[in-house]
Write a structure and sequence with these properties.
Chain B: Pfam families: ABC_tran (PF00005). The complex is a heterodimer of chains A (about 375) and B (about 500). With about 375 residues, chain A is mainly α. Chain A has a two-stranded antiparallel sheet. In chain A, α14 packs across α15. Chain A is globular, with a radius of gyration of 23 Å. Chain A starts with a helix and ends with a helix. With about 500 residues, chain B is α/β, with parallel strands linked by helices. Chain B has three domains: about 230 residues, P-loop containing nucleotide triphosphate hydrolases (Rossmann fold), CATH 3.40.50.300; about 180 residues, Rossmann fold (3-Layer(aba) Sandwich); about 70 residues, no CATH class. In chain B, the strands form six sheets. A six-stranded mixed β-sheet of chain B has the order 6-9-10-3-11-12, sandwiched between helices. A six-stranded mixed β-sheet of chain B has the order 18-21-22-15-23-24. Chain B has a four-stranded antiparallel β-sheet with strand order 2-1-4-5, covered by helices on one side. Chain B is globular, with a radius of gyration of 24 Å. The chains are: A mainly alpha (about 375), B alpha/beta (about 500). Chains A and B meet through α11, α12 and α17 of A and α10, α11 and β20 of B.
Chain lengths: ~375, ~500
C-alpha cells in the first residue's frame, strides 16, 4: 500500500492534481475567512458553468487563447527562455490577422489558413526580435519582451487612430471579412434558411446566436499536439531542448545555440500570435479594439504553462481549468457577492505547489524509507 | 577530552537507500583518534554517501553513529559541527570575490562593539592558525585570484577556525599538482600530531600509501575490509577495491606513427581578460600516435582546447586537420572535420545531465541519417544504439538508456561521453583530463579505450594534469609551461622528475 502511494506521488500528473486540490483547499479557507460558505460558493461556481450550454461554450471560448499563449510560454520554458511577451505577441498576431483578413478576399478555408500563417509569421518575428537581442547582445528576454508588450499595445491603438484603418467615431478598426470567420455554421446561421430553422428549434438559437461559438479550441488542441510532437519527436525539438538544459554542452557538440534561441522565440511568438488571430476570426467584433490595458491572455499563458509544468498537452487541461475558474469566479461575485479574487488565490496556490512539486517527491521518499525500516 | 580510549568515529552497520537502490549495505567504519584514515572505493561505491551521513547531509536508513564513544543522531550538519566534525568538499564552497580571511570567518565573524566587523583581529587569528599547521595562504587575496591548492588550504583553515577535531576531506588531491599533494600530506601530518583526526576519501592508491595509517575499503555499498596501510601493497588495495585483479600499468604496443594529420602553428590565444594564455604554440600529431601534453593546471591547457574546438577565438596562428583550417570557424565545423573532444568538465561541456543517456549518446549525431529521417528522430534506432553502447562500454546500470545522465556516477558519465565521442571513429580524439575524478577500474577502461582507438589508426591528443597518466599513455610527450611547449620527448626517454621540473618552469613559486 505504502509503496503504491509512494510511486503515485512521484508521477508528475499526481503532483499537479495534488497541487490543484491544495489550491481548492486554500480557496475554501479564504472564502470561509471572508465569511462565505465555501461549499455554497464552490457548488455555485461549478453549477454555473454546467447550468447552460452557453456557459460551457463561454468557458471553451475563453480556453482557446489560454491554451495557445500557454503553449507559447511552455515552449520557451522547455528551451530555457522565459517568454513574458505573450501579450505583445498576441496583439501583433491580432493586428496581422485583421490586416490580412480585412483587406483580402480569399476563398473560404484558404483565407483562414492565410490569416493564421500571417499572424504566426508577424508575431513570430516579433518574438524573434527578443530572441535576437538575447543571442546577439545578451539582453535578457524578460526585459525585452515586457517592453515589446507595450510597444505592441500602442501600435494597436495607433493603427486604430489611422483613418484608413479605424472606423470613424468608434474604438474599432475595420473587421475581418465574414467568410473568414471561424464561427460554427458561420454564414448559415444568419441566412434566411438558417434563421427559419433556428426559429423552429429554439434550443439551438441561444448557442449559435447567443455565443461566439467557434472552431478555435479545436485548432488550439491540434496545435498543442503539434508542439508536443515538435518538442519530443523532431531533431529541432531535440536541439532546442539540449540548448535549454545545457547551453555549454550543446555548444560544444556543435549545436548552433544562438540560432536555436532566435528560432525558439520565433515559435513562441508565433503561438501567442495564433491566439490573437483566432480570437479575431472567432469572436466579436472581429476587429481590433483600442486597448486601455494588456488583454491578459499572455499573462494567463504563464499561469497555464506553470500549472502544466511546461507540458504542451498538459496546457490543454490547465488552460481549461484556468478559464473555468475565471468564469466561475465571476459568477460567485455576481450571485453571492463573494470576492472573485478567491480564484486568484486558488491559482496562486496551485502554481506555488506545482513549483515546489519536489516536496511531494520528498514525501514519497519518506514513505519508502519508512517501509524499508519496517522491512528491516 | 572525555573518553580518551574511544574511537573518534564509529559507524555501525549503516544502511542507505536511494529509491530501491541500496547505496550502503551494513557498512562499518572505525576511526582511531589522531589517525589518518583513508576511505577507499570506486566511484559510486558509497564512500561519499557514507561521509555525507557522518556530516549530517543524508540521514541513514539504519545503523548507529558514535562520536568519541557516544551515540549521536546526525540530523543535520549543525549537529556534526557541534561535535567538531568538519568537511572539505570536492568542489569548494567559497565566495569567489571575497578575500581569504573573509571566507574563513564567514558565519563566525569576529566583531567589536557588538556589531562592527573586526577584520584585523580575525586576520591575526587566521594567520596564527595558518602558521601553526603550515597552511600557507595569502590572507588578503581574493579567492578567484589564488590557485586551487591554496583554495583547498582555505577550506581546511575554515574548518580549523571552527575548532574541528575530525576533518573529512573528499577527494582532496583530485585537483592538485604533485608538489601541492606533498604539501597537503605534510599538513595532514601536522594536524594529526596535534591530535586531530582525518578521514580522507580517495581512490588514489599512491596517496593512501603516502599519507594514511588505516584504510577502509568499500565496494558497491558493502564493507570489504579495514587494513593497516603499511602492511599491504598498492596492488592489493586496488584488487580489494575493484574486486578483481587490475593492472596499474597500461599495456600497449609500440606506436607506429604515419603522416602528420593535425597541426598547430604559432597559435596565440587570449582569455576573456585579454591576457595571452597560449603563446605562439606549435605542435603536430601523426596518424596512429598518442601525443600527451604535460603541464600544471593554468598553463594554457583550457584555452588551447577551447581554441581547437572553436569555443573561443584565436588571436593568431593556424590549426588544421588534414589540411582543413579550423581556427575561428565553428564547433560544428570542427566536429564535421573529424575531431572529437572529451572536455575537462563533463557536466558542463560534455553532458546534458537532464537528458536521458540515450539522447546524450547522440548529442553530436542526432541529425545523422541513422538517427533521424526528415527531421524526425528515429526512437527505436536511438534506443538500439544506446543499448549497444551501454554494453560495449560497460556503462552501469545496464538499463540506464532512458534514465537521465544525472543519475549515473562520474565514471559512468565519462563512459557515456567516450562512447559518444568514439562512435564516429574520429580522426583525432582530443582528450582533456579524460580520467578526472575517476577510480582505478574506470581509468584502466578509459586508457585501454584510448589505446584501442590509436591502434585502429587514429590519433589522440591527450591533455592531462596527471603526470602518471601522460607518462603511461602517451607515445610522445610535450611539456607545456606558460602557454608554450618547452620540451618534447618520446615515451621512456626521461623520468617523472625531469618532466616535473620542466612543468614547474624552474622558477615558478609553488602554489602561489
Amino acid at each position: 500500500m505504502g509503496s503504491k502511494i509512494a510511486e503515485l506521488l512521484n508521477k508528475t500528473a499526481t503532483k499537479i492534481i495534488l497541487a490543484i486540490v491544495l489550491g481548492f483547499m486554500a480557496g475554501a479557507l479564504a472564502l470561509a475567512v471572508a465569511g462565505y460558505d465555501p461549499g455554497t460558493s464552490y457548488s455555485m461556481m461549478f453549477t454555473s458553468i454546467f447550468s447552460s450550454p452557453q456557459n460551457m461554450i463561454q468557458v471553451l471560448i475563453l480556453t482557446m487563447p489560454n491554451i495557445l499563449t500557454g503553449l507559447s510560454v511552455a515552449f520557451a520554458f522547455k528551451t530555457g527562455l522565459f517568454n513574458i511577451g505573450g501579450e505583445g505577441q498576441y496583439i501583433v498576431g491580432a493586428i496581422a490577422a485583421v490586416m490580412v483578413g480585412g483587406v483580402f478576399n480569399l476563398p473560404p478555408v484558404i483565407n483562414v489558413i492565410v490569416i493564421m500563417l500571417a499572424a504566426f509569421l508577424a508575431a513570430g518575428l516579433y518574438g524573434a526580435l527578443a530572441g535576437f537581442l538575447k543571442a546577439k547582445f545578451g539582453i535578457h528576454e524578460v526585459i525585452t519582451t515586457i517592453m515589446l508588450n507595450w510597444i505592441a499595445l500602442y501600435l494597436n491603438n495607433y493603427l486604430i487612430s489611422l483613418p484608413g484603418i479605424g472606423v470613424k467615431n468608434t474604438e474599432y478598426s475595420f473587421a475581418i471579412k465574414q467568410n473568414a470567420w471561424t464561427n460554427v455554421l458561420n454564414g448559415w446561421k444568419t441566412s434566411p434558411q438558417g434563421q427559419a430553422y433556428l426559429a423552429a428549434h429554439p434550443a439551438l438559437s441561444p448557442i449559435l446566436l447567443g455565443t461566439d461559438i467557434n472552431y478555435g479550441i479545436i485548432i488550439a488542441i491540434v496545435v498543442a499536439v503539434a508542439v508536443s510532437f515538435l518538442l519530443y519527436r523532431t531533431t529541432f525539438g531535440y536541439q532546442v531542448r539540449a540548448v535549454g538544459l545545457n547551453k555549454d554542452a550543446a555548444e560544444a557538440a556543435g549545436i548552433r545555440v544562438k540560432k536555436s534561441i532566435v528560432m525558439t522565440m520565433f515559435i513562441a511568438g508565433g503561438l501567442a500570435g495564433l491566439a490573437g488571430a483566432l480570437q479575431m476570426t472567432g469572436t466579436l467584433p472581429h476587429a481590433l479594439v483600442t486597448l486601455a490595458s494588456q488583454p491578459g491572455y499572455g499573462f494567463n499563458g504563464i499561469t497555464v504553462a506553470l500549472m502544466a509544468n511546461s507540458s504542451p498537452i498538459g496546457c490543454i487541461f490547465t488552460a481549461l481549468l484556468l478559464s473555468a475558474l475565471q468564469f466561475g469566479g465571476s459568477t460567485i461575485q455576481m450571485n453571492l457577492g463573494a470576492p472573485s479574487e478567491v480564484v486568484n488565490i486558488m491559482i496562486g496556490v496551485i502554481v506555488f505547489f506545482v513549483a515546489v512539486a519536489s516536496m511531494f517527491t520528498m514525501i514519497s521518499e519518506r514513505i519508502k524509507r519508512r517501509r524499508v525500516k519496517i522491512a528491516d | 577530552m572525555k573518553n580518551q580510549q574511544a574511537d573518534a568515529v564509529e559507524m555501525q552497520s549503516i544502511y542507505k537507500y536511494f529509491d530501491n537502490f541500496c547505496a550502503l549495505n551494513a557498512v562499518n567504519l572505525k576511526v582511531r583518534r589522531g589517525s589518518i584514515h583513508a576511505l577507499l572505493g570506486e566511484n559510486g561505491a558509497g564512500k561519499t554517501t557514507l561521509m555525507n551521513i557522518l556530516y549530517g547531509l543524508y540521514r541513514p536508513d539504519g545503523g548507529k553513529i558514535l562520536i568519541n564513544g557516544e551515540p549521536v543522531e546526525m540530523k543535520n550538519p549543525n549537529v556534526a559541527i557541534e561535535h567538531k566534525i568538519g568537511m572539505v568538499h570536492q568542489h569548494f564552497k567559497l565566495v569567489e570575490n571575497f578575500t581569504v580571511v573573509q571566507n574563513i570567518i564567514l558565519g563566525q565573524e569576529v566583531v567589536k562593539a557588538g556589531c562592527v566587523l573586526d577584520l584585523a583581529r580575525a586576520r591575526k587569528q587566521v594567520m596564527d592558525l595558518s602558521k601553526t599547521y603550515g597552511l600557507a595562504v595569502d590572507p588578503d587575496a581574493k579567492i578567484e585570484d589564488i590557485s586551487v591548492g591554496m583554495q583547498q588550504r582555505v577550506e581546511i583553515l575554515k574548518a580549523l577556525y571552527r575548532g574541528v577535531e575530525i576533518l573529512i576531506l573528499d577527494e582532496p588531491t583530485a585537483v592538485l599538482t604533485p608538489q601541492e599533494i606533498n604539501e597537503l600530506v605534510n599538513i595532514m601530518h601536522n594536524l594529526t600530531e596535534d591530535g586531530k583526526t582525518i578521514i580522507i576519501i580517495t581512490h588514489k592508491l599512491k596517496e593512501i600509501k603516502k599519507s594514511s595509517e588505516y584504510c577502509t575499503i568499500i565496494r558497491r555499498g558493502k564493507y570489504i575490509d579495514t587494513v593497516v596501510v603499511k602492511s599491504v601493497s598498492e596492488q592489493q588495495l586496488a584488487s580489494m577495491m575493484v574486486g578483481r585483479e587490475v593492472s596499474l600499468v597500461v599495456a600497449k604496443a609500440k606506436a607506429d606513427p604515419g603522416d602528420i594529420i593535425f597541426r598547430i602553428d604559432n597559435l596565440t590565444v587570449e582569455d576573456n581578460r585579454k591576457i595571452e594564455r597560449v603563446k605562439e604554440l606549435s605542435l603536430y600529431v601523426k596518424r596512429g600516435e598518442i601525443v600527451g601534453i604535460a603541464g600544471i593546471d593554468g598553463n594554457g591547457q583550457k584555452e588551447l582546447v577551447e581554441a581547437i574546438t572553436c569555443l573561443t577565438k584565436v588571436k593568431a596562428g593556424k590549426i588544421s586537420i588534414n589540411g582543413a583550417e579550423l581556427q575561428n570557424t565553428s564547433p560544428h565545423y570542427v566536429v564535421e572535420n573529424g575531431i572529437a573532444t572529451i572536455h575537462e568538465d563533463r557536466q558542463k561541456r560534455g553532458l546534458v545531465l537532464d537528458f536521458p543517456v540515450k539522447y546524450n549518446l547522440i548529442l553530436e549525431n542526432y541529425n545523422k541519417p541513422q538517427f533521424a529521417g526528415r527531421s524526425i528522430l528515429k526512437e527505436p534506432a536511438i534506443h538500439q544504439f544506446a543499448e549497444d553502447s551501454i554494453r560495449r562500454y560497460d556503462i552501469r546500470p545496464e538499463d540506464c538508456a532512458s534514465e537521465p545522465a544525472r543519475a549515473l556516477s562520474g565514471g559512468n558519465q565519462q563512459k557515456v561521453i567516450i562512447a559518444r565521442e568514439l562512435s564516429e571513429n574520429p580522426e583525432l580524439l582530443l582528450a582533456f583530463q579524460p580520467t578526472r575524478g575517476l577510480d582505478v577500474g574506470a581509468i584502466e577502461f578509459i586508457h585501454s579505450a584510448l589505446i584501442k582507438h590509436r591502434d585502429s589508426g587514429h590519433s589522440i591528443l591527450l591533455i592531462s594534469f596527471e603526470l602518471d597518466e601522460i607518462m603511461n599513455v602517451s607515445d610522445r610527450i610535450c611539456v607545456l609551461y606558460d602557454g608554450r611547449i618547452v620540451a618534447e620527448f618520446l615515451q621512456g626517454e626521461v623520468d617523472e622528475n625531469e618532466i616535473g621540473l620542466l612543468m614547474a618552469g624552474g622558477e615558478r613559486k609553488n602554489g602561489i
